[in-house]
Amino acid sequence: MTTSPSPTLYPDAEGIAQAAALLRAGQLVAFPTETVYGLGADACNGEAVAAIYAAKGRPSFNPLIVHLPSVQAAQRYVVWTDDADRLAQAFWPGPLTLVLPLREGHGLSSLVTAGLSTLALRVPEKASAQALLEAFGAPVAAPSANPSGKISPTTARHVLDGLGNKIAAVLDDGPCSVGVESTIVGLDGAPALLRAGGLPLEALEAALGAPLALKTTPDGSTDITAPGQLQSHYAPKAPLRMNADAPRPGEVFLGFGPMACDETLSESGDLHEAAARLFDLLHKLDARGQPIAVAPVPTHGLGRAINDRLARAAAPRPNDPGPT
Ligand code: TXA
Ligand code: MG
To answer: Exposed, middle or buried: residue 270 (CB in 10 Å: 0-12, 13-18, 19+)?
Structure first.
């Protein structure tokens, strides 16, 4: 992670090329969209995506939006539907994010989706965002470029004030014209509004020719009914036990640091590597159908989010009938 003050790049040919090169090198680059500034990383590079969570200080792994330059580029990663087509034709590029089922062989880091089987996709309109995505030529994962719990940035100055010493560069293209985050529509079932945002509901309903189910929080806030916040969000089929010093008979053991184990989050005890590997390893161990024991993971830095996710995976299941 960068610790010196990060340089400001401008959206001329040289600035765009430098920003794309930094993304290719696995670095974090904040970039403008018409909604808010995003904190971008190569979506196929697990450690780069882990660095997003570390920079934001996110206490849990909330899934990220993947940004692409065109509808065609976006379609490669998801199972496309007629409703997706209607909305994409009407509103992409623009302040709309679509959530669709992930397609096989997508190649994205599982940390992008926090282990979910759906993916949030967006094609931003701002010319400098388009130029960067074209130059990079691969999917860019980006949450809003603010520290966790702070408001979203709409200027490069906001980004530098919040994350200046944690990013490789910010691409400064002035203030964002929309200024609130994108509207998020879930299309992995009946179309549903997951987050109110820069594109009005009425426009969406007109394009779909049908009302949208509202899944925003009951208090009407624009917070998403975040899948990352649900206890059942990622529950392995088998029971999971945290802070285990050693496996009990019949358990598979997921290690951290140098120790004997079936799989390791990070043999060297690197929390970035552990975050990048977490969801893949949980899926892999779960496929064995045995209870999973997980070694203690430190609670500082990215360890907080890792422990949060493990605790959700270890929580009793909502449909668990319990002892009978
Ligand atoms: O305008 C925006 O959307 C900005 C710019 C940078 O594109 N991005 C943004 O990202 O607001 P972020 O991470 O701050 O908010 C993304 C929201 C989160 O609440 C997350 O839960 C939700 O999108 N999300 C991501 N993937 C999802 C999925 N597969 N299913 C449901 N919600 C998802
Ligand atoms: Mg945000």
So the answer is: middle
185: domain CATH number? 3.90.870.10
Find where tokens 């692409």 sit: 68
Our answer on whether the CB atom of 113 is closer than 6 Å to any ligand 1 atom is yes
Q: Rounded CA gap, 18 and 9, in Å? A: 8
User: Are 122 and 178 within one domain?
Assistant: yes
Q: Which atom of ligand 1 is nearest to the CA of 145?
A: 6
Nearest alpha carbon, ligand 1 atom 7: 38
Q: What is the pLDDT of residue 225?
A: 47
Q: Which ligand is nearest to the CA of 149?
A: 2
- Contact yes or no for 51/30 (Cβ under 8 A): no
Tell me, yes or no, whether 187 and 251 share the same domain.
no
Is the shortest distance between the CB of 181 and ligand 1 below 6 Å?
A: yes
Burial-class residue 30 by CB neighbours within 10 Å (0-12, 13-18, 19+): buried
Residues 168 and 74 grouped into a single domain: yes
Give 3-state DSSP helix, strand, coil % of the chain, rounded to 5: 30, 15, 55
Beta strands in 50-95 (DSSP E): 65-67
**DSSP letter (8 states) at residue 72:** H
- pTM given for the model: 0.85
Residues 38-92 have pLDDT tens digits of 999 999 999 999 999 999 988 788 899 999 999 999 999 999 999 999 999 999 9
Check if the beta carbon of residue 129 is closer than 8 Å to that of residue 33: yes
Ligand 1 close to Cβ of residue 38 (< 6 A): yes
Domain assignment present for residue 319? The answer is no
Domain limits at 75?
A: 8-214
Tens-digit pLDDT profile for residues 263-282 = 999 999 999 898 888 888 88
pLDDT at residue number 198: 87
